Amino acid sequence: MLYPVLLAFSALFAYTPAPPACQLAGTITGIGQRPIVFRYTYQGREHADTVRARNDQFRYTAHPSDNGEVELVIDPTQWTSFWVEPGTVRVQGTAAVPNQLTFTGTPGNDVLTQYRQQIEWPFYANVQKALAAKQSTDSLRHQRVQASLQFVEQHLTSRASPDILLWQTRYDDTREDQYRRLFARLPKAQQNSVQGREIAKRLTVLHNMPVVGRAAPDFTMPDTAGVATSLSRLRGRYVLLDFWGHWCGPCIRVMPQLAALHQQYGQQVQFVGVAAEDAKDKPAWLQTIRKHHAPGLQLSELAGDATPVLTTYNINAFPTYLLLNPQGVVVARTSDVEELSKALTALPKP
After folding, report:
1. What are phi and psi of 147, to 5 degrees?
2. 78: helix, coil or strand?
3. How many Å apart are CA 268 and CA 344, to the nearest integer?
4. Are strands 45-52 and 35-42 parallel, antiparallel or unpaired?
5. What angle do CA 215, 267, 269 make, to 5 degrees?
6. Is the peptide bond before 210 cis (omega within 30 degrees of 0)?
7. Sign of the CA dihedral 142, 148, 152, 154?
8. Which of 94, 191, 254, 324 could bond to 239 as cystine, CB 3.0-4.6 Å?
């Protein structure tokens, strides 16, 4: 008599309903019948789905991703992203500005869109105006970081908050204590998310990165001929580390100024270029060195822009310059060649 009951009981637990799907319902003015690509990483592998719009509208069922985000790509140079959350996500915007679509209808996407509308998009617009007027953007950048941190404080429980905080730790490396305090206030679920774990790593990097008054960590790296060179071998004289890449427009534009500084200070300071290059780009790197007369010793790990040295030194902007004294201690760190020139001018006369 118990047998049918046991069967029913086991069948009850054998069935596990699938979690609710994340459905996108979009209207993008001007996209017409064009394809939309959705990029995401799942179980360590990169995926891409393509959906074709019909009369500016589309529907898409989002797949889960490792970090909870999916990129929506109309123009590969101006993409955007959204959170994969149960429910219907409404997507609206225009194909003319493909990186400013709004995603609403689920909690995380509502907060993410609010952040973009209040802080991110106005910031980029103001930066463009400042650049057009040839004005400094430093104050705008500081305002953006402070506004972002205040926004996170107001939305501590949102899944968007650790993502916003993570980007600030990458964007401004001068606020470690503020980041650490704010991270401690996030719920444990947010701290243990993919973004939260990355924040913890970034805090360690910020705590140990070489800044003014701190010794620069030693490293060994091959030069253009493949010969290994160690930073410690250069102790005893001033060293200028120039982190750059052949693909970096601002780096190339200041090469003439660097060459002039090398001409003036090369007897007192060892110039060392540290290039963020992939192995396949070695020919382009070498050609750029020759074409633009990159000064001094030129090194590269030939392993991209997320290598151990670049990570340890927290190089997020190119170019970045570190001036070391003969004991290997940082006396200046900047991305501005004019500030670098002032630091070199202040060196004691040989």
Report:
1. -65, -35
2. strand
3. 10
4. antiparallel
5. 20
6. no
7. positive
8. 324
Is residue 59 within 8 A of residue 89, CB to CB? The reply is: no
Measuring CA to CA, how many Å separate 52 from each of 28, 31, 285, 287? 12, 10, 39, 42
Rg (the chain; Cα; Å):
25
- Tell me the C-alpha distance between 186 and 195, whole Å: 12
Which distant-in-sequence residues (6+ apart) come within 8 Å of 271 by Cβ?
240, 242, 258, 261, 262, 295, 296, 297
* pLDDT digits 0-9 by tens, 234-262: 999 999 999 999 999 999 999 999 999 99
> Nearest CA to 242 among 324, 322, 329?
322
Q: Are 286 and 302 in contact (CB under 8 A)?
A: no
In sequence order, the β-bridge partners of residue 37 are: 50, 73
Per DSSP, what are the bridge partners of residue 83? 69
Q: How much is the pTM?
A: 0.80
DSSP state of 333: E
Q: 180 pLDDT exceeds 80?
A: yes
CA distances from 20 to 84, 88, 103 (A): 11, 10, 18
Strand partners, 278: 303
Burial of 122 (0-12, 13-18, 19+ CB in 10 A): middle
Q: Collapse the DSSP code of 92 into the 3-class scheme (helix H, G, I; strand E, B; otherwise coil) and give the result.
A: strand
